[in-house]
């Protein structure tokens, strides 16, 4: 596996592949890898002859008081995991490589970044869109692979790709869960034993949402009320939101029909976790 630390280095490798007619699938990460990330790498390997990844904890998507400084950095083990998975290239830039001191440009996908997660993290998706656009410009992959766990992120990036006519196809990988249903996340390691034992309530609530819709519930208001009640019964949990929205636009719906995204976010102590499911009605 090649490791590139400069923009020139990553472009040189990727340009050599394209010159040989080899397509590239790209999996951007912030490191602290788990089985969810590696499932995206496996997906990439099936879709293209060359697999590129990146590890970069992006400061522009963290707000004041968030966990940028303590976000886990496990670069050595991450690179080992990528090598064992057959990754061809890992881009490992520093903040100074990604952003010059006088960097001024912002990328705002109007509207989408202010819904759901954006209500708690108002500048998060502007930072996500910026770093993904920069990485796409550097790697120039044919396929971009993101995880469904960050469903809103995927919608924001899909919209950016469409609006800017970027020559890349976005593929979503499914949520990977622990044995008790908790969605894998690099932030799960923040949980103490009591919080970890309580956290699967998120998956139980997601499953309850699916069951209610399958049994005929079509009122988003009633559905959300039932889900909120179930979540707030857990003393270790502080609810941020639970919503039922259009899976394509993230806008509220008056009736549960078509492609619906049930999404939720909650705190366990200071750790904020998210989960979702897309349901076709």
Strand-helix topology:
Elements: E1 2-4, H1 7-19, E2 24-29, H2 35-47, E3 50-55, H3 75-84, E4 89-91, H4 95-98, H5 117-120, H6 124-139, E5 143-147, H7 151-163, E6 169-173, H8 193-198, H9 201-214, H10 220-232, E7 237-246, E8 259-268, E9 271-280
Parallel strand pairs: 1-4, 2-3, 2-5, 3-4, 5-6
Antiparallel strand pairs: 7-8, 8-9
Q: Quick one: overall form?
A: globular
Query: Mind telling me the CATH class of the largest domain?
Result: Alpha Beta
In whole angstroms, the N-to-C terminal distance is: 44 Å
Give the name of the CATH superfamily of the largest domain: HUPs
Report the β-strand fraction as a percent range. Answer: 15-25%
CATH architecture term of the largest domain? 3-Layer(aba) Sandwich
Total count of domains:
2
* CATH topological fold name of the largest domain: Rossmann fold
Side-by-side strand order of the widest sheet: 1-4-3-2-5-6
Number of helices: 10
Whole-angstrom Rg: 19 Å
Q: What sequence of helices (H) and strands (E) makes up the elements?
A: EHEHEHEHHHEHEHHHEEE
Mean pLDDT: 97
User: What is the tally of beta strands?
Assistant: 9
């Amino acid at each position: 596996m090649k490791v590139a630390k400069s923009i020139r280095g990553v472009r040189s490798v990727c340009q050599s592949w394209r010159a040989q007619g080899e397509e590239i699938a790209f999996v951007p990460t912030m490191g602290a890898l788990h089985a969810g990330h590696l499932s995206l790498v496996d997906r990439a390997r099936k879709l293209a002859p060359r697999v590129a990844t990146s590890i970069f904890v992006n400061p522009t998507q963290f707000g004041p008081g968030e966990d940028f400084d303590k976000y886990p950095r496990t670069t050595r083990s991450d690179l080992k995991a990528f090598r064992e998975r057959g990754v061809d290239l890992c881009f490992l830039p520093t903040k100074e490589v990604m952003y010059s001191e006088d960097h001024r440009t912002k990328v705002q996908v109007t509207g989408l970044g202010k819904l759901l997660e954006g209500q708690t993290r108002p500048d998060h998706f502007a930072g996500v869109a910026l770093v993904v656009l920069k990485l796409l410009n550097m790697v120039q992959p044919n396929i971009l692979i993101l995880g469904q766990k960050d469903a809103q992120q995927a919608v924001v990036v899909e919209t950016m790709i469409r609006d800017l006519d970027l020559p890349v196809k976005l593929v979503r990988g499914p949520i990977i869960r622990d044995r008790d249903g908790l969605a894998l996340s690099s932030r799960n390691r923040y949980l103490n034993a009591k919080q970890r034992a309580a956290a699967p309530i998120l998956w139980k609530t997601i499953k309850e949402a699916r069951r209610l819709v399958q049994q005929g519930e079509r009122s988003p208001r009633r559905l959300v009320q039932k889900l909120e009640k179930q979540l707030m019964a857990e003393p270790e949990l502080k609810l941020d939101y639970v919503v039922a929205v259009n899976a394509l636009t993230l806008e509220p719906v008056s009736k549960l029909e078509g492609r619906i995204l049930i999404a939720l976010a909650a705190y366990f102590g200071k750790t904020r976790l998210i989960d979702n499911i897309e349901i076709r009605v």
